[in-house]
Sequence to fold (218 residues):
Amino acid sequence: MQVKSKDRVRDHGEVLTNEREVYAMLGLVGHETERIESRFLEPACGTGNFLLPVLEQKLARVQKVYGRSQTEFERMAVIAVGSIYGVEILPDNAVECRSRLYTMFDELYTNEYRKRSKDQMRDTIRFVLDRNIVVGDALDLRHPETKEPIVFSQWSLVTDSKIKRHDYLFEELTPTDEAPDSLFAIKRNDQGDTSFIPKSVKEYPLTHVLKIAYATNN
Fold:
């Protein structure tokens, strides 16, 4: 384990996970990290030690399958980045986490397409990371100072290069024993298993992947 300072350990319980432990944990989920659309949430993401290798494997998959077409790469990269979620109680850690994830994408994107790479795409990735890596307390599901509820965005590729965004309250994604179905509609699949369908708090119009950061309804 790694620490930044004894004060941060004492005040916030901050301990950063080493690379060996990260890859051991990822080994428990098999090939899920290679599924571009498979979502990962780190409720105490720190500076991103866990989320970085997840994104690395997802982007490697995007590059391998879609790299020959820049358009395909761009839209699938948005889905890959948009599948990574983190909650962090310390604002400086959240900023660093977003920066590290963005840098990983930008280095791959720039190396892959050089002069054909687009600043609009970079702005889209920054915007998605701002929505997905949030300052909050995963215990009470709210911002530690403002007490506003944590809201996450879901990014879905609908048609061509158009993305559909839905916003969800984090608390609606975590049913409790006291209220297992008060915030969710319930359905049963073909195997008879019960699953929960969260209700979105806001829905956005279809938006091109290169215009997400500039949409007036953001």
Summary: The chain is about 40% helix and 20% strand. Helices lie at 6-12, 19-27, 51-66, 70-82, 91-113, 119-132. The chain has one domain: 6-214. Residues 8-14, 178-190 have pLDDT under 50 and may be disordered.
